[in-house]
């Protein structure tokens, strides 16, 4: 099954955002709102997308003590995002309380390791071991806490599916038409994501910077 595409709206021009959504039409149901767009437009953008029948991945990467995170999750669920991201590194207790606060209204996704990090970067953070092992351990923690899934690179997706089951959602950012050229390190093509069992892929720059975003969607399945 082809992974569903989530288009990242990491831009601050509202006219450009809605022109893009209009051009993509029914081809795209999911949009990611991260720090950039959320800091610029706040809940207005989230609510407007929801009113248009679109589904939102709210990529806020919550990262704090359990009380603060659970209170934030409670507030977020009032705006009906389909997904909300939370750092797995906050620990079991905070993850569990966040899941309880979601009350089944929003799917929580644990951030395992940012796709901009590789093994050498982790050493700088005093995190040692193979990337795949670290990602899997964090994914297991998220599942045990009751989260719906995780954000991980395509490189780890097959292992996560094998160990934690096909129903545990894997969302993969860093999908590219070609390798290199930006700040992402653990990237993959759409085909690689599909072959490794990814459920959703997040694609930003290759689509919103394209002169023909619909053409990019077609190309994704061919490479």
Q: Reading side by side through the largest sheet, how are the strands ordered?
A: 1-2-3-4-5-6-7-8
Poorly predicted regions: 179-183
What's the helix-strand series?
EHEHHEHEHEHHEHEHEHH
* First-residue to last-residue Cα separation: 16 Å
Query: Architecture, CATH level 2?
Result: Alpha-Beta Barrel
Task: Provide the structure class.
Answer: alpha/beta
- How much beta, percentage-wise? 15-25%
The CATH class designation is Alpha Beta
Sheet bearing the most strands, described? 8 strands, parallel, barrel
Global shape: globular
Number of helices: 11
The total of beta strands comes to 8
Question: Measured on Cα atoms, how large is the radius of gyration?
Answer: 17 Å
Into which percent range does the helicity of residues fall?
Answer: 40-55%
Determine the CATH topology.
TIM Barrel
Molecular structure report:
This protein is an alpha/beta fold. The chain has one domain: Aldolase class I (TIM Barrel). Helices cover 44% and strands 17% of the residues. It has 11 helices and 8 strands. Strands 1-2-3-4-5-6-7-8 form an 8-stranded parallel β-barrel, surrounded by 6 helices. Helix 4 packs parallel to helix 5 and helix 7 crosses helix 8. It is globular and about 40 Å long. It starts with a strand and ends with a helix.
